[in-house]
């Protein structure tokens, strides 16, 4: 089977902190084998509707991210990358929030965005195992 690859650069409306954005996808913490950081790049292994994909996310400045993916699901992974990176977040809504704590957090963490992933089953398995098995064994 021939390997496929896809890539794009995503322009976000403001700064992005990849570590903070991707943290929810790392239920096993640094021991999680599906999400790793090497240098300034993040690598993610993920299932997609078209098959598995390996994704590299690399910051390009403060508000751009280069996305490269390999495997049968490479196209899906690149298509889903804006949602994964929180590109559709409305950061302005945080600033006008009636909640002082939310406004303070938005001020302190301007690069934080809310990620979303279609890999729901993988997230559920990690969450269930994390509740059934203690500590690092769950990862």
How would you summarize what this structure contains?
With 139 residues, this protein is α+β, with helices and mostly antiparallel strands.
Walk me through the structure.
- The protein is an alpha+beta fold.
- It has one domain (5-134): TATA-Binding Protein (2-Layer Sandwich), CATH 3.30.310.20.
- The protein has helices spanning 18-22, 74-84, 91-95, 100-108, 120-132, and strands at residues 5-11, 35-38, 41-48, 51-59, 64-70.
Extended strand count: 5
Report the uncertain regions: none
Helix share, percent: 25-40%
Q: C-alpha Rg, in Å?
A: 16 Å
Task: Let me know the average pLDDT.
Answer: 81
Summarize the helix and strand pattern as letters: EHEEEEHHHH
Shape: globular
- Identify the CATH homologous superfamily: DNA-3-methyladenine glycosylase AlkA, N-terminal domain
Q: How far apart lie the N and C ends?
A: 31 Å
Q: What is the CATH architecture assignment?
A: 2-Layer Sandwich
Structural class, by secondary structure, is: alpha+beta
Give the C-level CATH assignment: Alpha Beta
Strand content: 25-35%
